[in-house]
Amino acid sequence: MWPPVFQAKVENAQPQEVSPEPASRLQSLRDRDTVTRFDRAVSILPQLSAMIASKGVPTAEEAYNFFTFNFEPDPQEETEKISRKRKKQKKASEGGDEEGGEDDDEQEDAESEEAPLVRDEEGDLFVIEQSSQDFLEVKKAEYIGYRKCIQQESELLFRPSFRTVPTSIKLPENMKPRFLEDEGLYAGERPPVSLTNENILENRILKTEEGKKWFGDDGRIMALPDPIKESSTRPPLFQMEEDVDPALHTVYRKAVKSKYAYLYIAGSADPEGDYQLDVDVSGLIFSHHPLFSREHVLGARLAQLYDQYLTRQHNNLTGHLTDKLNGSRIALRNMLNVHGSQSLTPVMQQRISEYSLEVRNTRQLRDSEQEKDRTLLKNIVKVWKELKAQRDLQKYTNTPFKLYLRRENVDRASDEREYEDEILAEVVELEAESEEDYQRKLAEYKTQLEEWKLWRRKQVPARATLINQQMLEDEDQEASESEGPVEEGHPKPEPPEKPDFDSIEQQVREKASRIRRKPGEAILIPELSASGNITASELCPRPETARREDVTRRSLFIKILYNDKEVSRTDSRSLNSDFKVHFGQIFNLKIVNCPQSISLQVFEEIGSSCSLLAQVYIPVPEPSVLTGNGTLEEFEFSSNQRVMFDHDGVGSDVPLSFEADGSNKQTLLTSGKLSCCVSWGIGEDDVPLAPPVSQQPGGLHSGLGRLDAVTYIGASGLYDMKKIGEWATQSRLDPNDPKNGSIMQLLKLASSGEVTAPEYFRLEQLQEEFNFVTDEELERSKRFRLLRLRSQEVAEFRNYKCVPALEREVTDKVFQEYERRLKEGEEIDTRDHLDPQRARKAKQHQKIREAVINRFILAKHHFLLSDLVIEEEIPSPGYVILGLNLFKLAEPKRPLKPQRKERKKVTAQNLSNGDIKLLVNIIRAYDVPVRRPQSGRPGQSSQTAIQGSDWLISQVKYTSIKLFHTADCQQDLFLHLVQVRPFVEVSFQRTVLQTTTAEGPNPCWNEELQLPFSAPNGDYSTASLQSVKDEVFINIFDEVVYETGSIHTRVEKHWLGSVKIPFSTIYSQSRIDGTFKVNTPAVLLGYSKERSHGTNGGYDALRSLSEGAFITLFITIEPQLVPGETIREKVSRIQFDSQEDEHLLQAAERFERDAARVYLDRPCITTVIDLNGKTVFITRYIKPLNPPQELLDAFPENSQEATALVARFVSLIPSLPDRVSFSGTCDLWSTCGEFLTLLAGDEEEHAVLLCNYFLSMGKKAWLIIGTAIPEGPTAYVLTYEQSRYLIWNPSSGQYYGQYDTFCPLQTVGSLVNADNVWLNIQEYTSPMTINFDVSKANLWKPFFSRSFTHPGLSSVQVNKTHLLSHLALHSIEKILKEKIMEWRPRHPTRWNRYCTSTLKQFLPKLELSGGQDMAEGHRHELQSLLGDHRISGFPLHLPFSEIGPIIEAVHSTGVHNIQGSNVEFALAVYVHPYPNHVLSVWVYLASLVRT
Amino acid sequence: MATGNPSVFLLTVNGQIEGANFPEYDNLYCKYCFVYGHDWAPTSGLEEGITQITCKGSQSSHRLIWNFPLETTFKSTNPSGWPQLVVSVYGLDVFGNDVVRGYGVTHIPFTPGQHTRTIPMFVPEPTWRLQKFTSWLLGRRPEYTDPKVVAQGEGREVTRVRSQGFVTVSFHIMTKDMKKLGYDTGPSSPLNTPSATSGWSTEEQQYTT
Predict the structure, then answer these.
(1) Which residues in A lie closer than 8 A to residue B138 (C-beta atoms)?
(2) CA angle A911, A914, A916 (to 5 degrees)
(3) A986: distance to nearest CA of chain B, Å?
(4) Within A487-601, where are the H helices?
(5) DSSP single-letter state for residue A900
C-alpha cells in the first residue's frame, strides 16, 4: 500500500480531482446489489485486463488520479470499480468519451506498475472465482407484502375478538340463561375483571374443545367469589421518616434453643432441679463378627451353649419340677390312702382328679426340661468335638477355649433303684391315666352306640316310604361324608381299644433312656475354660495372619443418644482377638427434657472410616434405680450387614458350613452383647437426681393420659365433679403433692357436698373473686370512707393529704367536723351566733354557696383549649398586629429605655409554707391626726405643761384654724407644741410587723415589710388561695413616750386609724398600688384630726371634698402567683340555661369581645350570672327600688341627708367578695332581694342596690363598671345632681366628686342603667378626665343602638318590703371584754364603769350623726373624766355580720397591748338596728391612765 | 429504722434522663418534674430540675445526651397517685427563641430494679394554620399552661398534638415497706417468698435464667 504521507500530499495537491467522485459513489450505492467480497476480484480483474488490452500509456495526470485511488478493500472502492465497469460498458456502446478514455489510461498506468503483483496472484484469484460462481447464487431479497403476511398469519394465529360473545353461543342449545341472584339464591360477588378482558377470555375459551363447560348457567364464565377483603386485615405499618417507632424496632436476638422446649420434667424450673442420668458403658462382646474364623464361630457357639448350660444349672428347673412332682405324688397317695376305703365324696374326687392332673402336667414339664438338659449337654460335647476337629484341621488354635467334662461317679445301686422307682411310678400313673381314658372313651362309645341303634331303627321304615327323599338325603350325606357307611347316616361307633399296659412301660423306658442318663452312669459336668493357648501369628498360615491383622486394625466406639440426640461417645477401643471390647466409661447426663429414648450406637472404625454396626435401645430406668444399686445388663444386638473376606474371616451374612461336604450351611450375622447400665444419678448430698414417680417418663404412655385431667376426661368433664373424682382416684394423685393441692381441695369439697355445680349460667363468673372485701366491710372501713369522700371532693377532704395506709390510723376525729356539718344541715346551731336570724341567713348563704360550688366543680372539669394550651392569639385582620410583632423582631435586645417587665409568675402548685411572702411597701401618709395637748398633768415636761395649761386656748385655736385657715404664726407655734410620732404596723395572719417611727402628720416611711403567708391547710391551689379570707390590716399608731420617774420611759402606742385590704384582693390584683383613705375613727380621744398646713396650698384645693388621713401603699405577693382565672367564660359556654334571647347573647358576647380587644383595661360587662347560674343581661338588674321608708322619713326635708343615709344603709350590709364566698369560681350577681335576704354580697350587689334606691329617689343614676383600688374590677354608682357628677363607693357609703384626687375609682369602663350599656370609647379612663355624658356617641358606645334596639327586657328585681328589726345585741360587749382580758393574760384588766357608761351614751349620737362632727360635744362630755385620767380611745364602726370580724378589728387596734399598772379600760358597744336586719355596730374602746 | 408496723412506704427513684432522640432539632435541654397524688410526699431529693443544653455529636447518630441524674425519695400511704415523671424538652429555634420541643410523661416503675423507659414526646399544635405560621415566625409556639397537664387525663380532649422525638430515662427503683403494707409489686416468684427484712431492700430481685 501507499505510504499515508504520500497519499495526503496528493490529496492536497489535487482537491478538484477528488470532488467528482462522491457523485458516482452515491450512484453506485444506489444501484448496488448484494455483493460479496469475492466480487471484488471478479470485478477488478476483467477491468484491469480490459484496461491493458484497450489502451497504451496513460497521462501523468491520469496516473496520479489512479494512484490516489484507495485500493484498500472497502466497499467504496468496490463500488467505484463497479461504476467504472458500468461506465465502461456504456462507453463501449457509445463509442467512448473522454473521461472513459482517461479512466482507461489511468488504469493502464496502474497496471504497468502493478503488473507483477497482480500477475502473481492471478492463479489464486481464478480459483476463487471459479468456486464462487459454482456455489453462489445472487438473488434479490424476497419481500412479502403486509396484507399477504397478515393473511398467512391468520391461517396460523388466532386472535380472540374483544367483542361480547352472545349468550346463546356460550350456552348449550335451547337453554335460557338462568340468573341465580334473580332466583333469590346467594351468588358471591365476582372479582372485578374488565369487560374487554372477559370478552377476550370468553372468545378464547369458545375456540377450544369443550369450551362451553367453562360457562355457568347464567352464561358467564364461572368464577369464585371475590376473595379480596375490602378492608385490610393486617395492621398497617407506619414508617416514620427516619426512625422506626422504637416499639417496632426489630431486635436481633440470637436463636436460643429453649431449655424447656417441650415435655419438661415438672418442677425442673428451679435450676437445681435438673436430673441426672448415669450411663455406664462397660463393654461389649461379639457373639459373631465378620472377622471370626471358623474356630471362633465354633468357640462362640460353645461359649454360648455353655452359658446356657450355666444358666440352666443356676435355675435348676429340672430339680424344682422333680421336687414338685414328688410332692404332688405323695400328697395324692396320702389322700388315696386316707380315703381309699371309704366312698369318696364328690369334693374329694374333684381334688384327687385335680392332683392327678397336676402330677401329669408337672411330669410332662419335668420331662421336657430334662430332655433339654440332656440335649444341651450333648450339644456342648458335640461342638467341642467339632472345635477340636477344626483345630486339628487347621493346625493352629485361635481360641483359648477348653472344655473339661468332669465326671461325678454315683452309687450305682441306689441310682438304679431310683431310676426304676421313677419309671414304675410313671408307669403306674400312665396306666391309671390310660385306664381312665379308656373308661371315658368306653362311656362315650356306649352312648354313641345307643344313638346309632336308635337311628338304625328309624331308618328302616323311612326308606320304604320315602325313597325319593332318601335319595336326596343320601346325596347330601354323600357330599358330607365321603367315606363311611354309605347306607347309614351314622357310622357305627367302634369300641375303644383296651390300653396296652406293656407298651406303656415300654414307652416310658424308651423315653427315660432318651432324656435321662442311664442308671449308674457318671454325671457329666462340663467346665469351659479359656486357658488354652493361642497359636502365635508367625506359626499361622497366611490367610489367618491376614485375618488377625484385620482384627487389630479395627476399633469400636459407642455413641450415646438421648432423645435421638447424640450426647456423648466413648473413646475408641481396639478390637481384641477374642472380640471383646472393654469401655468402662460412665457418662453423667444432666437432663431437662423427659427421657423418651436412650440408645447406644455401636460404631466400628477401620482406619479412618467408621460404620454403624448396630443400635441398642435401652429402657429408661425406674426412678428407684440409682447409680449405686444399678446392675450391669447385657443387651444383645445384631447387624445384617453382609461382609465377606478373602482371608480366614468367615464374614457376616455369608453361608458357612462346617461339614466336610459343605452341607448344612449356616448363615451367621454379626451380633453381640453390649453390657451397660443406665441409672439415675445421686447428687452431692445423696439426693437422688431422679424425677418424681408421677413424672416418670416410664409412665409416659400409661400415666401421661391420666395425669392430665383434660386429656383424660375431656374439657367438658372438668365441670363434672364426679368425673374429676373418678379421674383423681384412677390416676392415684398424690394428695401430698402441692401441685395437686387445688384438685384435692376441690374433691374434698365436692365429696362433702358443700359445693354443687351451679345450675345456672353466670355472665360474670369472676365477679365475686374481684370483690376484695364485701360491701359492708367497705362501708365500715374508715379509710375507704376517707378516700371516697376525698374523691367526691367534699369540702373538708378535698385536699386531704396522706390518707393513712392502715385502717387503725384513721382517727374518728377526722370525720367529726364533717359529720357535724351534715347534722347541722337540719338544725341550725344558734349557739355560736349572737343573732339567730343572722345564723339562719348564714346557713342559707352557706347552702347557696355549696350549690354553686358543686355546680362549678362540674364546670371546672370541662376544659377549653385555652385552659391547657397557651398560644398566640390569631391576629385579627383589622389590626396589623403581625406587622407590629415583626417590628419587635428588629428590636434591640437591650433597649435604651427598657420597658418594665412582668415578674415571672409562679404556678401555685409547687409552693409550701414560707415560700410566699406578702410585700407591703409603706411609702407615706398624709394628714395623720395629731396629739391634742392635755391638761393638768403633774410631772409633765415643760412642753406638755404648756399644752396642758391651755386646753381652751388650743380648742379655740383649733376651731379658728379649721375655720379660717390662717395665722401662720399660730400654726408654727402649734406645730412646735403638738407632735405626732406615727408608725405603721401591718398585721396579717397574726403576724405583726412595724415600721420605724416617723415624725409629724405627714410622715414618709418608704419601708418595705415582708410578711409570711401560709395558706389554709397548706393547700396552695388556686381555688384555695382565692378563698383565703384573711385581711391585711395596716394600722397607723402614734408612739407616745412617757417618762416615768427619771430613768424609765414607758412607750405607749395609740391607734390612729387603719386600712384593711383583703388578701383575696391582693391575690387577684397581684399588686396594689395607691393612696388609700385611712379609716380613722370618728372620735379620737386625745387627737385632733388636724389638717396639716404645709406650704403647698394648691394641693389642698384638690382635697376639697375628701377629709381624713391618707396613706400611700404598695402591696404585692412575692413570688407572683398566677391569679385564678374566672370561669365566667366557661360557665357561659357550658350554658347554664339562659332565658335571654340567643341573638342578645350573641350580641353581648360580640360587644364584650370587641371591647376587650380594643380596650384591654376597660372592664365591660353585659351579661352576668345570677345565683341560679343563669345568664342574665345586666340591664335587668337596674330598676328603681324603694329604700326603707324610715330612712326617707329620717330627713324628710333634706334630700342630701337622706341620700347619705341610704348610702350608709347600703354600706352597712356586710361585704363578702364572691371569690371568697364562692371560692373564686365566678362573679355571681344576686338580685337586690336576694342580697337583702342573704345580707352579704359583693361590691356589685351593693352598687346595684344603691343605684336602684337612688333611681327610686328620683336621681339620675348609673352603674359604673370600672376598676378601683384596692378592689380591682368593681362597680360604683354615678349620680348626676346639681349639674355635677358624684361617684359613690357603695361599700363605704362615701361619695366623691368627679375631680376628687383621692377617689378610689381609677378607671371607668362602662356605664349601665336600666336601658342600655355604654362602653367608654374616650381616650382616657380616669374619672377626672372623662366626660360622663352618655348621649355623645363618639364618647360612649351604646350596646342598644338604632340598629339593635332594646328588646324591652323586664327587670329581675322585685320591690321588697323591708322588715323592721328591733334587735339589740348585748352579748357583744361581754364577749369583747372577755377577749381583751384573754389577750392580756399576764396583766389584770380593770374596767372603768363610769367611762364605759359615758361612752355608751355617746355612741347612739355618733350613729345618728353618721360619725361626723361629734367630736366637740363628746369631748366636753368626757371633760370630767379627763381631769384625772389621760384617756385615749376611739369608736369603731362596723357593719355586723358575725362576731369574728369585730373581734379581729378590736384586736388589730392593739388597745390591749397597753401595759402599765394603772391602766383602765373602757369598752362600750352599741348596735343600731336598721331595717331589714342591717345592723350597725359601734364599739368604743378607750384606755385610761390615771395621772 | 426497723419499725415493726410501718405506716408509710418509701419509694426511692434513682436514675437519669439519659438522652433524647429528636431527629429534627438540636441544642435542646430538658426540664423534669414529678406529679403525684394527694397521699404522696417527697422526702428527699429534687422534685424539679433542668438539664444542660446539649447538641448532637458529630459521630453519634441522632442522640442527644444529657445524663441528668434523678434522685428522689417519696413516701406515701397509698399507691393511688403513683408518681409520674413529666419531662419537657425545650430548645432554641432559628430566631433564637426558646420554644418547646416536646412534652412527655411516664409513670415511675413500681417494681424494684432497673428499668429503662423511652418516652414518646409530643407538642401541642396550633389551632389554625395561620397561627402555625405566626407562631413559627414569632417563636411563640403553643405551650401547655403547665407541663403537668400531660400527667392528667382530664381536659386533654381539647388539645391536638404532634408527636416529636423520644426521651430515654433509666430508673433504679427501690421500695421499702410496701410488702408490709400489703402491696406486692415484685415479680411473681412461685417458690420462695423472701422473708420480710428490715431496712432497704430491693424486694425480690430474682432473675431466673
Answers:
(1) 872, 885, 888-889
(2) 60
(3) 34
(4) 501-515, 542-553
(5) P
What kind and span of H or E run contains B76?
strand B63-76
ipTM, two decimals: 0.75
> Which residues does chain B have within 8 Å of residue A872's beta carbon, measured at their own beta carbons?
131, 134-135, 138, 140, 142
- Amino acid present at A1089: K
Q: Which of A802, A803, A882 sits opposite B134 (nearest CB)?
A: A882
Helices (H) and strands (E) in chain B, counts: 1, 10
CA distance linking residue B179 with residue A347, whole number of Å: 80
Partner-chain residue, chosen from A803, A864, A868, that has the shortest CB–CB distance to B39? A803
User: Which residues in chain A have Cβ-Cβ distances shorter than 8 Å to B134?
Assistant: 872, 874-875, 882, 885
> A742 in the Ramachandran plot: left (φ > 0), alpha (ψ -120 to 50) or beta?
alpha
Residues of chain B neighbouring A874 (CB-CB closer than 8 A): 127-128, 130-131, 134
| Cell 389590626, located at residue | A879
> Residue written as cell 359613690?
A1288
Contact: B128, A246; criterion CB under 8 Å: no
Q: Which three cell numbers stand for residue A949?
A: 395649761
- pLDDT at residue A1482 is higher than 60: yes
Q: Are A653 and A636 a contacting pair, CB within 8 Å?
A: no
If you average pLDDT over each of A337-341, A631-635, B43-47, B136-140, which comes out highest?
A: B43-47
Q: Which residue among B8, B48, B135 places its CB closest to the CB of A872?
A: B135
How far is B143 from chain A, CA to nearest CA, in Å? 5
pLDDT in tens, A769-799: 667 777 788 788 888 888 888 877 776 776 6
| Interval A832-850: pLDDT, tens | 455 566 666 677 777 777 7
With CB atoms and an 8 Å threshold, state whether A805 touches B95.
Answer: no
A1260: β partners: A1280
What are A615's three cell numbers? 443400635
Domain range annotation of chain B? 2-208
Consecutive sets of 10 residues in chain B, 209 residues long: mean pLDDT of each?
Answer: 72 92 88 90 89 82 87 90 93 83 92 92 85 76 84 84 92 89 67 43 42
Phi, psi of A867 (to 5 degrees): -75, -25
Q: Of A1136, A1457, A1077, which is closest to residue A1268 (Cα–Cα)?
A: A1077
Q: How far apart are CA B180 and CA B198, in angstroms?
A: 10
Q: Which of A876, A1047, A1058 is nearest to A982 (CA)?
A: A1058
CATH class, domain B2-208, is mainly beta
- Residues of chain B in contact with residue A869, where contact means CB-CB under 8 angstroms, are 124, 142-145, 159
C-alpha cell at A685: 448430698
pLDDT of A15 > 70? The answer is no
Q: If you measure CA to CA, which chain A residue comes closest to B160?
A: A865
pLDDT tens string A880-899? 455 555 555 565 666 677 66
Assess contact for A1135 and A1157: CB atoms under 8 A.
no
Residue A648, pLDDT above cutoff 90 = no
What are the C-alpha distances in Å from A1296 to residues A169, A1299, A1302, B156?
110, 8, 8, 50
User: At how many degrees (to 10) do helices A1243-1256 and A1199-1212 cross?
Assistant: 150
**Cα gap A634→A307, rounded to integer Å:** 13
Q: What is the pLDDT of residue A1046?
A: 65
Which of A803, A806, A811, A872 best probes binding to B when mutated, by most B CB atoms within 10 angstroms? Answer: A872
Cis peptide before A1404 (omega within 30 of 0): no
Angle between helices A942-949 and A968-977 (to 10 degrees): 130
Contacts of B36 in chain A (CB under 8 A): none
pTM: 0.47
List of residues 6+ apart from A304 with CB closer than 8 A: A287
Amino acid found at A372: K
Report the alpha-carbon angle A383-A389-A390, nearest 5: 90
